[in-house]
Amino acid sequence: MNTLLRRLVNALMARRWTQVLLVVVMIALAATGLLNNLPTDTRAQAGTPAHDGTSFQLTGRVVHVADGDTFTLLVNGKQQRVRMSSIDAPELTKDRERPGQPMGQKSREALSRLISGKTLTLLCFEQDRYERNICDVPLDDGMTANQRQVQAGMAWANMEKRGQFMRDDKLPGLEQQARSKRLGIWQDSNPVQPWAWRYHCWQKQQC
Questions:
Q1: Is-catalytic flag, 16?
Q2: For a tag site, which of 78, 108, 133, 185 has the least CB within 10 Å?
Q3: CA nearest neighbour of 150 among 90, 62, 63
């Protein structure tokens, strides 16, 4: 039925004189409820609408933690890749030309302890060019996993491009606390930010 409806709409739009008829058809479909069955955009299909400043929500179980800021959520039988909003964790080794950073594995392990196997409802903003959902990850204690990673010194508050990707104004303060306590990445007196590592080490081969 949906395929036939789409073909009808395309055929009608191809002729200017049928635009009025198109409106009539749409009104009739709305009255019968068939419009509710037409496909929506991919974000609406991926999750439910949110009403707190984010764009959509995803609820599912964490089935894989890739690194300190990226994981996979199983939502209604479909895997959704998630990139945690407003933070950037030390990189893991990708291949010989893209070596990892100190604390990369410990950061992944810390995130795994926080969320692995749990069923969570994420507050998401958008999808990036890699089709990852950019999300805050609320925990039962009222904080987010994003905040916990920064608080423990397992990730930076993401200030790449002058804070273009920063959505949580609590994170810089949490980072400063972790830095003053020399936690995690801050055990190094001058740790390299992941966005600088990706550019200088991976792109420019200046490790």
A1: no
A2: 78
A3: 90
